[in-house]
Automatic annotation (TrEMBL):
It comes from Ampelomyces quisqualis. This is Chaperonin 10-like protein. Residues 22-353 form the Enoyl reductase (ER) domain. InterPro entries: ADH-like_C (IPR013149), ADH-like_N (IPR013154), ER (IPR020843), GroES-like_sf (IPR011032), NAD(P)-bd_dom_sf (IPR036291), Zinc_ADH-like (IPR052711). SUPFAM superfamilies: GroES-like (SSF50129), NAD(P)-binding Rossmann-fold domains (SSF51735). It comes from the Eukaryota. GO terms for molecular function: oxidoreductase activity. Transmembrane segments: none annotated.
């Protein structure tokens, strides 16, 4: 396949946004691919991109990591290898792949070195073509569509690691999943595939009812209308408590999350900051971790091996993620509309943009 001389991409409008002076995104149509490839480069024709809440956080200045000035946004994509460098050994032309969101020595199997984030401090994937080193790319599961696979790199790997890679899961385990966004919904699908009984939270009974239709084992908890969430968690788990809490909201709820855990050995995975960075619990409350032999872990996506392990599980179990794609994909030209939909919060699952 001949490489194009130019292609289209979207960019953020600046380096640092704020609530008073938000960034926006704009399209360019004169991006250029390199005329020669490095030995280990792969060129990917991107077919689908999925959005994460952090895309909005970068525009309004609440994302706590440095970003590239006027960088190409978005970290999650699926595409086709259309050209390779002369020393590439991991891929062939025509392979269906996803870039790993976090790249660098630590994330590719090494032990040190600074990390690079696709779509944050490095160019993202909201574009028609991209070039990556072969070490920063994985084969997507054969059983998934482009749209499904585009949800894997950030939300998928984050959910996988928040559930400890589904290693040593106790029989009849429960998981509490905060909210109905990408990581929670991804965790929901993985829980069902692994035999973990999920409890998903929302302030909308309508959302909970729609999600519960996917499986009779899904339980819902409306955190606005339930006055005693701890008692409700005990009721829903037959007094056992949950083995996993996937925390999308931030530090404020951490001690309550620990109280929801089972008697010994549960884990709270901190994956987001939807409610900001403040907390009102006393420092001494952290001792509840000791009493329960529990842990709080921070999850920042994962390594290439994590990604590959997850993909192997998806293929083995024939896990599908079409239930996450409740909206029709947006056209590439309508990327701003996709951002508006994401910011509205009036959906559950993932927002996907088709790139054709």
């Amino acid at each position: 396949m001949a490489l194009p001389s130019t292609y289209s991409a979207w960019h953020r409008s600046g380096l640092k946004g704020s609530k008073e002076n938000r960034l926006t995104i704009y399209r360019t149509d004169d991006e250029k691919l390199p005329t020669t490839l490095d030995l280990n480069d792969v060129v990917i024709k991107i077919h689908a991109v999925s959005l994460n809440y952090r895309e909005i956080a970068m525009l309004n200045g609440t994302y706590p990591v440095d970003i590239q000035d006027k960088g190409i946004p978005c970290s999650d994509a699926a595409g086709e290898v259309i050209a390779i460098g002369s020393s590439v050994s991991r891929f062939s032309i025509g392979d269906r792949v996803c870039p790993n969101t976090s790249i660098g020595p630590t994330f590719d199997g090494g032990t040190d070195g600074s990390s690079i984030g696709v779509g944050t401090n490095a160019p993202g994937v909201l574009r028609q073509y991209a070039v990556f080193n072969e070490q920063h790319v994985v084969k997507m599961p054969e059983n998934l569509s482009w749209e499904e696979a585009s949800t894997l790199p950030c939300a998928g790997v984050t959910a996988w690691n928040a559930l400890n890679g589904l290693q040593d899961v106790p029989q009849g385990a429960y998981a509490l999943l905060q909210g109905t966004g990408g990581v929670s919904m991804y965790s929901l699908v993985l829980c069902l595939a692994a035999g973990i009984r999920p409890i998903i939270t929302s302030s909308s009974d309508e959302k909970l009812a729609a999600i519960k239709k996917h499986s009779p084992t899904i339980q819902g908890l409306n955190y606005k209308s339930v006055s005693d969430q701890g008692a409700e968690v005990q009721r829903l788990t037959n007094g056992r408590g949950v083995h996993f809490v996937v925390n999308n909201t931030g530090p404020k709820s951490l001690m309550q999350d620990v109280s929801f855990l089972c008697e010994r050995g549960g884990v709270v995975s901190l994956v987001g900051f939807l409610n900001g960075f403040d907390a009102d619990w006393a420092p001494g409350e952290i001792m509840s971790l000791m009493y329960k032999a529990a842990k709080i872990q921070g999850i920042s996506m994962g390594t290439r091996k994590d990604f590959e392990d997850m993909n192997a599980f998806i293929e083995k179990k024939n896990v599908r993620f079409d239930a996450l794609l409740v909206d029709r994909p947006f056209a590439f030209a309508n990327a701003k509309d996709a951002y508006d939909r994401l910011e509205s919060g009036k959906f559950h699952g993932k927002i996907v943009i088709n790139v054709e």
